[in-house]
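Possible regression after last week's pipeline update?

I re-ran a chain I had predicted before the update to compare outputs. Posting the input and the new output here so someone can diff against the archived version. Not blocking, just want to make sure nothing changed silently.
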Amino acid sequence: MNYSISNHFFVRRLAMLMTLLFSISVQASAEHQHEEKHSEPNHSRHEMQHATHGNKDAEHGHEHGHEHGHEDGHEDEHEDEHGHEDGHEDEHGHDEHEEGQVHISAEQMAVSGIVAHSAQAGEIKKILTLYGRTIVPERNTSHVKARFSGLITQLNVRVGDKVKAGQVIAEVESNASLKRYSIKAPISGEVVSRNANVGELATDNVLLSIVDNSQLWAEYQVFPSQKSRVSIGQKLSVESEQLSVTSAIEYLLNPMNNEAYLRARAPIDNSEGSWTVGAFLSGKVTLSKHSVDLAIDNRALQVMENQQVIFVKNDEGFEKRVVTLGKKDRQMSELLSGLAVGEEYAVDNSFLLKADLEKSSAAHVH
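New output (post-update):
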């Protein structure tokens, strides 16, 4: 009985011990699995981080290499461009005359109004300029009146009509004799005013005025500072807008009505009616002349880079030339260097060639 109890107790103790061992074994196994499960992601994460870091290093190396290669390529390209520019400069230096060349055809010249003149010997003049206007000579104006007072029975002309000297222009019936008499034009010319009509009385009033403007005076003001340089018989150029004619001073009239100047008169032939009465004038008096071996028109002169230049005609158009000048007047300049006798140079609208050359230079620099 005691033996059975002891044996039973032993069996229970053994079972409990085995249960405890099994429990410890299971717990250890679970912890080991947990550690493996936990360690594997960490290990994988570490490997992934390491791989990512390696990839970043690789990418960094790739980017570094790419950037380095790009910069190298950019520098090479820059060197190529620089070399290209050097080649362009060499080409430009090889063809130096192109720098000042303007290519233009004869047709383009005609359209642009560019006109070339041939370089020749000439004169440089010292000029005095006077100012005035055209007037009608006193003898060429007539104010027509009736000889005797009476009734105007005829008035045959109107303002603007041309009349001849001796032509009957009116008829008046005398108050004293009641006879009619004719009034004739005293001069040839144009009727510029009419102050009476048929049926009115003619007394001492002006019936009409006639002006002959086939001959005019160019009358200029000569101030005291100019008086010593102006004399009768002196040649001068009479100019008004597009008109110009050569004349000579015939009269120097003393001041009138407190005028501060003398009046110089030179005749103008106006038989063709080109000049108008009262037109403003300039008069250029030649005070001296100086002959030069080569003279050019001042309109040809242009300033580029602080130098006086002209444009000389060649087979391709015009080329820029720097020139040296001597004496000059308002129209011409003496040329000391830069052009030879017989060479053609641009005069009219030469500024267009300058503008074209400056435009081409700006585009080339850009």
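Follow-up from reviewer: compared with the archived run. The longest strand covers residues 280-297. Marking as no regression found.
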